[in-house]
Each structure stands twice: as C-alpha cells, then as structure tokens.
Write a structure and sequence with these properties.
Layout (H helix, E strand, L loop, with lengths): L1 E6 L4 E8 L2 E9 L1 H5 L6 H23 L8 E7 L3 H18 L3 E5 H5 L5 E2 L4 E2 L7 E6 L4 E8 L2 E7 L5 H11 L7 H8 L24 H13 L7 H29 L4 E5 L6 H14 L2 E4 L2 H4 L3 H13 L18
Parallel strand pairs: 1-4, 4-5, 8-11, 11-12
Antiparallel strand pairs: 1-2, 2-3, 6-7, 8-9, 9-10
The structure holds 5'-O-[(R)-(carboxyoxy)(hydroxy)phosphoryl]adenosine and zinc ion.
Length: 340
C-alpha cells in the first residue's frame, strides 16, 4: 500500500510517502524562525505558512519518493489535536487530493501517531513492529505531556497527562525568563551541558503523587521567583548554565520516574517515548539508564522523528487501513481531539 501523509497540526508543514511500512520520503518544513520573534507559535502565521508550503512540500515528497500521484492508494492527514486553522489547511488540502484522485482518505489523531514513531528506525526508516510489546509511552512536547498504555497495536489507554503546562512549555517559559529565544528547550540543553544539575534544588511537581498526571507550572513559578531574587546571575554565564542544568534535571527526573512507575504498575516490560522534548540528551540518557537498571526494553523515537512529522501519520494510517478501519472523506478537523 502506498500512502501520502500530511501533518500541519502546529508549526511544521510535513508530507511523507509511506509504502508497506517503509518511509520512502519524509519532508518537514519547519517554521521555527518565523515564530521565534513572537516568543511562541502564532496560529494565523502558521496557517498562512502551511498554505504556502503545502504544494511544494507534497510535490517534493512524491518526487523524492519516486511515486506519482496515480500510484497512491490512500491519503492521510492529521485531524487533531492541534491549532484549528493550522490543521484546517493540511487536512482540507489532503482531502481535496484524495477526492481528486478518487482514493480513500483517513484522518489521524496526532498523539496516537506519536505512539508509533518510536518503532520507526533506520535509513530509509522502516516501521518494525516485529518486536512490538505492550508498552507505556511518554509523549512529551511543547503542547503535551502524556503517559499512554499501549496494550497492543491500535489499542491504547491514556494513563495521565499534564494538568497545566507541558514539559516543553516549561523549558520554553523558563528559558524566556532567562532571556533565551523561543523555543528555549534545545538552548537550555546546550547551556546545561556546562552546568551543575545539583546547583539548585527546584521542585519535582507530582513526583510522588499516586496519579500518572504531571504539573510543571509550579516549577516555572519557582524559577521565576528564583530569578527575581537573584537577577544578577543572568550576567554570569556559569550561573546561567547551573540554572539551566538544575531546571532540566528537575523536569527530566519527573518524566523518567513517572514513566517507569507507570510501566511497573501496568505490568509492561517496555517503555517508549517521542515528542520534541525527547530530543533532549539528558532525558534520553537518564531514561536509558533507568530502563537498563530496572530491566525495561526502551524504544526512543529517533531525534528526527521526535518532533512533528508526517512519517508517523502515514505509518499509523497504513496500519489502520490494513486493520480495516474505515476511511472517510467527509470528516472535519478535531482541534480538541483528546486521546482516550
Ligand atoms: O514536538 P514539538 O516539535 O512540537 C510540539 O510542541 O508539538 O516539540 C517542541 C518542544 C518545544 O517546547 C521545545 O523547546 C522542546 O520541544 N524541545 C526540547 C529540545 N528540543 C525540542 N526540549 C528540551 N531539550 C531539547 N533538546
Ligand atoms: Zn507532536
């Protein structure tokens, strides 16, 4: 089966061509530079950029994959959750392509697709579900922090999520307090490399809570008060590095501890993770160390597939169509589509 998949839920315009579990091409046009000066994603600008990028990105994906539109068996697009007007552009354009080609169309939940990105690896990337086992999956990005029990392929249950800020948002907002540009996550990681993670003991919110929920707004507030009371430290690079390392350590410890605890509680032996924050090397290293220590198999999405991409949309769409989930051309976007 050959599919064209489209992802426009936030600030990446992405098109992928997937065939029989193999990602023939995955193109991502990022808008990070465009939104940086506003300190966050501006939905109207994102939508305008998706509109501009849709055709070039879709054409490039087909060209690079060596696939003509006549060879497509189906078209898929992210249906939600995401920014309404950003989703609308990619979803409606993809439906129009399916309609024009008279091919099946399937709308995909962005978070459900993230659950499968850790299983895509290699060059060219191939989705290998032969080693699939029930797992607890952490989805951690600028918009979401979710723990999901994936019982079998296409069968999952959300265990918990953030009750306020997402982990990536915490990186970004604390970075903003330090005067770092958006998105601050990658910069905090860089600065943290030269800092002491034990320099400041920031709170680890909900780390001992019985639930699988997260909360990061208290951590952000505590960093705000810390900076207010020690504003001179922002002029001292070593102290900024210590601050970054300490904030990062607090976020990572919460993510790792709660993910492993959820895995233990639910009796699975496998942990997976994806989403932009999963690019963070300290998170990757700490998760790897903890899983080795506790005897869990670990699948982290490759860095290029941690952030938003159409490859994961295409891979999940193909699995769904093969499992006879009915396609539908008359669906609408679902910006608030919560994974159940
Ligand atoms: O998945 P993503 O590209 O977009 C969504 O939010 O859906 O994730 C972006 C988030 C931002 O908050 C960014 O700061 C964070 O992921 N991020 C990182 C790193 N790379 C990206 N956070 C910490 N360390 C990183 N290396
Ligand atoms: Zn995402």
């Amino acid at each position: 089966m050959t599919l064209l998949a489209i992802e426009t839920s936030c600030d990446e315009t992405s098109a992928a061509v997937v065939r029989d579990g193999k990602v023939l091409c995955n193109i991502v046009a990022s808008q990070i530079q465009l939104h940086a000066e506003y300190g966050g994603v501006v939905p109207e600008l994102a939508a305008r950029e998706h509109l501009k990028n849709f055709l070039p990105v879709a054409h490039a994906a087909l060209d690079q994959a060596g696939v003509s539109s006549a060879q497509l068996d189906a078209v898929a697009a992210t249906q939600g959750p995401g920014l309404g007007i950003a989703l609308l552009v990619g979803f409606k354009a993809a439906q129009a392509v399916a309609f024009a080609l008279n091919k099946p169309f399937i709308g995909i939940n962005h978070h459900e697709a993230h659950l499968y990105s850790p299983w895509i690896a290699g060059q060219p990337p191939v989705a290998d579900f032969s080693k699939f086992q029930p797992n607890v999956s952490l989805i951690v990005s600028g918009g979401h922090t979710l723990l999901v029990l994936v019982k079998s392929e296409l069968q999952h249950r959300v265990l918990g999520g953030t009750i306020d800020d997402a982990a990536g948002e915490c990186f970004d907002k604390t970075g903003k307090l330090m005067g770092l540009p958006y998105p601050a996550g990658p910069l905090i990681e860089q600065l943290a490399e030269q800092g002491n993670p034990a320099a400041h003991d920031f709170p680890r919110p909900l780390i001992h809570d019985a639930s699988d929920d997260f909360s990061f707004s208290g951590l952000k507030t505590s960093v705000r008060y810390f900076i207010r009371d020690h504003s001179a430290l922002l002029d001292d690079r070593k102290k900024v590095c210590d601050l970054c390392a300490s904030v990062q350590a607090a976020i990572v410890e919460v993510l790792v501890k709660k993910t492993l605890r959820a895995a233990k509680r639910n009796g699975v032996r496998c942990v997976t993770a994806s989403g932009g924050v999963t690019c963070n090397s300290t998170l990757r290293n700490e998760m790897t160390r903890a899983c080795e220590r506790e005897g869990f198999a670990l699948h982290l999405a490759e860095k290029s597939l941690c952030t938003d991409n159409a490859a994961m949309i295409g891979i999940l769409a193909e699995r769904k169509l093969l499992a006879h989930v009915p396609p539908s051309l008359d669906e609408e976007i679902k910006p608030g589509w919560v994974l159940a």
